[in-house]
What we know:
255 residues, alpha+beta, Alpha-Beta Plaits, 2 domains, 10 strands
Amino acid sequence: MRNIKIVLEYEGTNYCGWQTQNRRSSCDVRRSTRSVQETLEKALLQILQKKTKVIGSGRTDSGVHAEAQVASFLTDTQMDLKQLSRALNGVLPKDIKIARIQEVSNKFHARFSAKSKLYRYTVVNNQYASPFIRQYAHLVKQPLDVKRMRQAAKYFLGRHDFRSFQAADKKQRHSVRKILLLDIKKRADLIQLYIEADGFLYKMARNIAGTLIEVGRGRLLPPDIAKILKTKDRKYAGPCAPARGLCLMRVKYKS
């Protein structure tokens, strides 16, 4: 069997996240119940004429985008990989595309071999969002103090228990994670938060973004972040920022 690694780009607007859902209630009712994983597996079935299980580096929530989601699957096909990539892009919808494809060692696992993930959260800080970016950014009309947001970001760095920034999850998960980078860049009316961690809890990136926006608004002070982390209680953190502003930018793997 060949172990195939692919890097995908997708616009998550019309999808119920990466992971295939078992029940409609698992999805945002405003979106399709289709997942990116399910759509990709159907494309592989059409081309290879065989059911193929695709493993992703991790789930992205309903409406979240990806510039570089990583997935892998086992197959006995002898099809040339360039040909397979062209065939997949020919049958996949326009909002999902294969950017790169390669054969890797059988030891590679898209999820368990991952070392860290980098997300970007985009905010438009203006009275309106351009039609060209509105699907990919969260509009905040009130002026944000980026200097305060950067001060607050420092409190997130390092290894902490992020239970205060975890949305309710069906599974009991270990809530300690290490944030390796939290950088905030501003260009004109665009504010972009780059968050890299060794792992993310359910909606953790969006909850951190929402909390930093509250700091920018002046509703929280930078030192409040340390207190919120200490409480390990979700109710003290800021609101969950909308999914459309979040994009998975990169997945790093162990060498």
